[in-house]
Design a protein that fits this description.
By secondary structure, the protein is α+β, with helices and mostly antiparallel strands. It is built from 2 helices and 4 strands, in the order βαββαβ. It has one domain: Ribosomal protein S10 (Alpha-Beta Plaits), CATH 3.30.70.
Length: 106
């Protein structure tokens, strides 16, 4: 396979603690890409990372009593196949909610 035969692809990974925010951001990105006339694959839900924490309620009196907390990180992935210049300009102008981490790789 020659380098000219391969298609260019942009991979966008979204992370957030709130699943609704990451879903809304992924829908906005896919709609923007489709409006510019380029094909988007996704959003593909990736496994949710769950971190568990156990904290003592009191350091002295009730040592065996503890509170449990968890932190969920929701992730989505979107692939943009053969992006055009218009697609790149539209993605730069998109306004995404705060609280969503975006990683773009070419």
């Amino acid at each position: 396979m020659q380098a000219a035969d391969r298609k260019r692809k942009i991979r966008i990974r979204l992370k957030s603690f709130d699943s609704r925010l990451v879903d809304q951001a992924s829908v906005d990105i896919v709609e923007t890409v489709k409006r510019s006339g380029t094909r988007a694959v996704g959003p593909v839900p990736l496994p949710t990372a769950i971190e568990h924490f156990s904290v003592n309620r009191s350091p002295h009196l009730h040592k065996k009593s503890a509170e449990q907390f968890e932190l969920r990180t929701h992730k989505r992935m979107i692939d943009i196949v053969d992006p055009s210049v218009d697609t790149m300009d539209a993605l730069k102008k998109i306004n995404l909610p705060s609280g969503v981490e975006i990683a773009v790789s070419v």
